[in-house]
Structure formats: structure tokens, C-alpha cells
Amino acid sequence: MEDSAKWEYAVLSFGGLLSAEKDERIQAILNDLGAEGWEVVSAIALDNSSKIKVIAKRPLSSITRRQRTFPS
Fold it and tell me: What whole-number distance in Å separates Cα of residue 6 and Cα of residue 21?
């Protein structure tokens, strides 16, 4: 039986209650994440604020797996 893909996820928040994040800064951060193998799978604009949550994933490597501690 073939192993199913294993993923690690990252959740990032941009902006704040009263101030939006500059597009250029978000773009730079997303480009850095992409260079590290992350892929954005969701971006959510939170109601009544200038805050955006971004969820990204990348394949979980054996090196990363050894460094991580998983919640029980």
C-alpha cells in the first residue's frame, strides 16, 4: 500500500483591526514562502477588520518531521 501524502501547514495573519497590510509586504512574504516550498491553499478576509488569514501547506519532509513536535 502506498503511503498517503503528509503535509505541514502554516497560518499567517496580515493586517490588523484598524490598519491593512501593504500589498507589497504581503507579496514579499508570499514569495518567500513559495521559495521555501509553501503553497497557499486559502486566504480569508475577516469580517469587520482589515485582517487577512492565509493558510499554506507544503509536503512534510523527513527532516522537518524529525524537528516537529505534534500536539497530542
Answer: 32
Residue 36 lies in a domain: yes
Tens-digit pLDDT profile for residues 4-31: 778 999 999 998 877 888 999 999 999 9
Name 16's Cβ contacts closer than 8 Å, sequence gap at least 6: 49, 50, 51
Q: Report pLDDT for 8.
A: 92
Domain enclosing residue 12, as ranges: 7-65
Cell 509553501, residue located: 38
Nearest partner of 20 among 55, 45, 54, 57, judged by Cα: 45
Number of domains in the chain: 1
Query: Considering the domain boundaries, does residue 70 fall inside one?
Result: no
